[in-house]
Fold this sequence. Notes:
By secondary structure, this protein is α/β, with parallel strands linked by helices. 42% of the residues lie in helices and 13% in strands. A 7-stranded parallel beta sheet has the order 3-2-1-4-5-6-7, sandwiched between helices. A 5-stranded parallel beta sheet has the order 10-9-8-11-12, with helices on both faces.
Amino acid sequence: MDGQRILVIGHTHPESGATAAGVRMLQLLRTFKENGAIVHFAVATKQGRYPDSLEALVAEIHEVRLNDSSFDALVKRLDCDIAVFDRFMTEEQFGWRVRSQLPKCKLILDTEDLHSLRLSRQEAVEKGISWDEDLWYRHPVFTRELASILRCDLSLMISRAEIDLLTGVFPWIKAQLVYAPFQMEAPDSQNDQTHESRKHFVFAGNGKHAPNADAIQILRNSIWPELSQRCPEAELHVYGAYLEEVPLGSDNYPGADRFIIKGYAPSIEEVFKKARLQLAPLRFGAGVKGKIISGLQYGLPTLSTPVGWEGIGGNSKENPLIIKEISQMISKAAELYDNEMQWEAALQQGRELAREHFANADNPKESSIGFHNEQAISREGRLLRDLLRSKAFDSSRFMSKWIEAKNSLLKKH
């Protein structure tokens, strides 16, 4: 990768203090830089409230416009070897433009999580039905996301569980998937705060993210009214950016005064080192949850669902921090909050399951993407990639051109 030029195209400007996606983007940019690449970052949206500074990681930041041929000129001028898209929608919008200007440029999709998987699970929850893979296949985003993966030369996957799901449907796609987990700093167990020195429950999550908004409502309306009576001295603190986006129910119940919306935390490390237990009743979602990895990094165990722990490891039999039903969270949370031995054992077991997501893991592969071997892709993969890149199947290209033409006409009138 030394000396290669990489253009990273982001859906939004990274906000690592607000989202796990922001943490992920900073890790990728840092990996590229440390491996000798010359990195450019392009984004089409305005910065949010909590933008990260990228000056030390990228050569230049480019503000670009959607559905505008000015992007074509930028791509041609930069003449990059690799283009990285931070989610499938970004590839839909800009992938065809990169291909048209730089046919030899390698295209890499960072899936972050499988959006279609998350959305199909959300649909199941909202409809009150059980989720199965057929529901995933039928979701309208599934074919769009799969097409984006197939159009790219490589896709970075943060979760082994999602690799298994994709290869279960298309075994030959495995050569196009690279497992690139979170890389948090390794836990320093010698300096962990003790169970006794910690207090209160906590939840951390961006209020704009639907799984987090749902979890906060579950905590407030279904869990905390009873849990607050089981743990009468404890409080439940909710941290996160954009929490004003979350509609909350009535606070007319005992313990409501100890359910406290704290808002954005400049340092989640300080929060997690003081709390005793994180509660994450996630009913839907996908990928790997940054809140759980960060919690383990700072000595904070997280009680969550199979969806919450997916991609990190374990099941309810081997991981004491997994609860199958939301209704089980109350008794298990009270038990872990009060029992130091169980709390300590759960923390250590969770850390072992999450070991590969810490910086001392053996298997991060982001640095290998610059040395991609075209022949490793199966014949089926190459054929489908070429087919989906052809104009006959590239609907996003013509939709973008139509929007650009329409905008041009509007400017003239």
